[in-house]
Amino acid sequence: MGEIIFSQLEFIRGQTLKIAQDLSEEQADIIPAKFRNNIRWNLGHIAFVQDAFAFQLNGRPSLISAQYRSFFANGTSPENWTEDVPRLADIVEVLEQQPKQIASILPGKLDERVSKPYTTSSGFTLDTIEGFLNFTLYHEGMHFSVIKMYKKLIQS
């Protein structure tokens, strides 16, 4: 696939940002009935996972605040938040910057093997930077769909 991944990351992220652009802080915090997360969590989770997969899991330092792990990692939920979470505008800023950061730090490194391969919850093993980045496209698409559905539910 090669370096086209950087353009794909930028494109997919643009779609995510577009769907989130008209949300208020209040709308971002609504947890639709029978669900456990909200739009703010989904956006923060996208940022957290992309940072982890692009940088942390291949031995590079994280480019986001450490607090993202406690708020947005797998298994977390706004129902359990006890501290102030990042503002929606701050999460959006992180989301805007990530594709550019990835494209500036990782060119020529896509074939690098990671020291510790990662197996997703669905049983797929990732062992190169390119594999990790490709997986984030799928991951973000799943959460994009959830955000789109949540928007319809809270705006109807």
Walkthrough of the structure:
This protein is mainly alpha-helical and 156 residues long. It has one domain (4-155): dinb family like domain (Four Helix Bundle (Hemerythrin (Met), subunit A), Up-down Bundle), CATH 1.20.120. It is built from six helices and two strands, in the order H-H-H-H-H-E-E-H. It has a two-stranded antiparallel ribbon. A hairpin with a 5-residue loop joins strand 1 (113-119) and strand 2 (125-128). Helix 1 (4-20) runs parallel beside helix 6 (129-155). The radius of gyration is 15 Å and the shape is globular. The termini are far apart. This is DinB-like domain-containing protein.
List keywords for this structure.
2 strands, two-stranded antiparallel ribbon, 156 residues, mainly alpha, Four Helix Bundle (Hemerythrin (Met), subunit A)
What's the total number of strands?
2
In this structure, how is the largest beta sheet organized? Answer: 2 strands, antiparallel
What do we call the CATH topology?
A: Four Helix Bundle (Hemerythrin (Met), subunit A)
Second CATH tier, the architecture: Up-down Bundle
- Helix and strand composition category: mainly alpha
Low-confidence stretches: none
Residue share in helices?
55-70%
Q: SSE string, helix = H, strand = E?
A: HHHHHEEH
Kindly report the average pLDDT value.
95
Coarse morphology? globular
Rg over CA atoms? 15 Å
Q: Please count the helical segments.
A: 6
Quick one: CATH class? Mainly Alpha
Strand fraction equals 5-15%
Strand arrangement, largest sheet?
A: 1-2
Distance between the termini: 40 Å
The CATH homologous superfamily name equals: dinb family like domain
What count of domains describes the coordinates?
1
